[in-house]
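ok so for the tutorial part 2 we go from a plain amino acid sequence to predicted C-alpha cells. step 1 is just haveing the sequence, like this:
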Amino acid sequence: MEFAEFADHIADIESLDSDIERCERVADLLAVAGDDLGTVVRFLLGRVFPAHRSTTLDIGPRRCYEALARAGGTNVSGDDVEARVATEGDIGRVAADLDLGGQQGLAAFGAGDRNALTVSEVDDRLETLAETAGEGSEQTKGDILFDLFNRADSLGAKYLARLVLEEMRIGVGEGTIRDATANAFDVPIETVEAALQVSNDYGLVAETARESGTDGLSEIRLVVGRPVQAMLAQTGTVNDAIDNWGAVVVERKYDGARVQAHYDGETVRLYSRNMEDVTEPLPEVVDGVEDSLSAPAILDGEVVAVDDGDPLPFQEVLRRFRRKHDVARARENVEVRLHAFDCLHADGTDLLEQPLVERHDRLTELVDPGDGVELSDPVVSEDPDEVAEIEAEALAAGHEGIMLKNPESAYTPGKRGQNWLKRKPDVETLDCVVTGAEWGEGRRAELLGTFELSVRDGDGHATVGKVATGITDAELEALTERLTEYIRAEDGAEVDIEPAVVFEVGYEEIQESTTYSAGYALRFPRFLGVREDKDPADADSLERLESLADSQ
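step 2 — the prediction. this is what the C-alpha cells look like for a chain of 552 residues:
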C-alpha cells in the first residue's frame, strides 16, 4: 500500500465523530491493507513497533522540526517549524502546510523512488533509524527523516510527523482496533480479545484473524520474552470483597514497581508495568530469578527497595529503574528485591485461565525463594476482623496497605475489574474522643484492648464505634496507663471513661447504624495515633460525620 493511500484513509477516519462509523472505516482499511496489515494496525495506534517491544525511535521534537525544515526548503528553519507548532498545537498540520518535496534527498542517489513511498518502506526506514547508533548516527537519523518527509505528499507528511513523535491522535484506540479486526475478518470479538490478552500484538492478531480465523486466534499463546499487560486493581472495601466472593485472598500491597519476570530456561528479562525492558538496571533481581527457577516461567510481582529488610519509598525503586550507567554502584546504595505474587506461565503451560489460588500453588512449586526473590504469603479469610489485623500489620511494617483478590479469579491482562481490589490508608480520618473501653483477655487481661469512639454532639458525645486494630502491645500499655486516671466506672470488662483523650482513626466507610447513638458506625476503624494537639472540644462533630457519610 502506498503511504499516500494510507494517509487518505486516516484523514477520512479522523474526520468522523461517530465511534461506530470510525470502527467501520478502520475495518474497511484493514480489509484492503494486504501485506501491510500488521504495520497498518500499528500505525493506526500511533506505534512504530509492537507494544511488547522496547525499541524506540528516540526522536525528539527538535530533530523532527529540523528534518521538516530541511525538506521544506532554504527559507524554513527548525525554529520556524517550532514556532508554527507552538501556534498551531499540531505538528501534523504544520508538516502538511510546508512546501515539501522539492529538495534533493537520498532518493536522488538511489535510496528510493520519490513517487512510490509505501507503508512498508516507511516501516523499514523507521526500523533502520531506530537501530542507528554510534559515530555519525545523528546525521544518519536526520538524513532518513529528511528523505521520508521529502518524498511524502502533504497529507502523508501530516501523519508521518505525528507518527514519528507518537502524536497520532486520530480517535483510534485499542478497542477500535479490536472491534474492527472482528468486523473485518468475521471473527468473534471475544476471541480477538483473548488473543490480544496473551500476545499484546494487535498487528499479529489482525494478521492471524485474516489468515486463520477463529481457530488461528485460539492457538495464540503466551511467549516467554514477550511481555503482556499487567492485571490491574481498583479501590474497594473489605465488605464488598467478602459479600461478593465469600472468602478473600489478602496480600500485602508493596510500595514498589510492578515487574514481569520472563525466564526461558537460560535468560531472564524483566519488564515494567509499561512493558519497558528494565533488565539491565536490576541485576540482583535477574540473579535471583535465575537462581530460584529451574523451568521456563513468567512471573508477576513487585520490585521493592529495601534497607536491612525494611521497605523504602517507591522513589528509591525509580532511581534504580532509571539508572543506565554505573549500575554496580547504584546497587550498593539501593538494594531491590522481587516479591513474586502470581504466575502466568509455568514450564510450557499458560495459567491465565486458572484460578488465583491454583496459580499461586504453581508459583510456590516453581520458585525457590532466595536473595533477590521472595514469594508473597497470602491469607485466605472470611473474617473482616482478621483482614483488618493483616492490614494493620502491613501498614506497621511500612507497606502501602493490602490487596484483596477473588480466590477464583483468572488473570486478565490489562483489565481493571472487580476481582482485584486495593486497600490503602484512608484519605479521610476522624478525630474521635475515647468515651469507654474494654479490658482485654488472656495475656492482655491487664490492658485496655478495645476503645469506644465518640464524636461531639452539642454539649455531649455520640458513639460511632469501637477500635481494637492497628494498636501494638507497647501502645496498649501506654494507652492503658494514660486512660486509667480517667476511668469513671467499671462494669465487668466494660469501662466508662471521661472524655479526655482524642484518637485519630482511619476507617473503610461510614454506615448508618442503630447500634451507636450517632446513628452511624465506622466500618473497620483503625487506630492511627493520639491527637496530642487536640482537646475533646476540638474533636470532630456529628455534623462532620454526617457530611462524610453523605459524600461517600
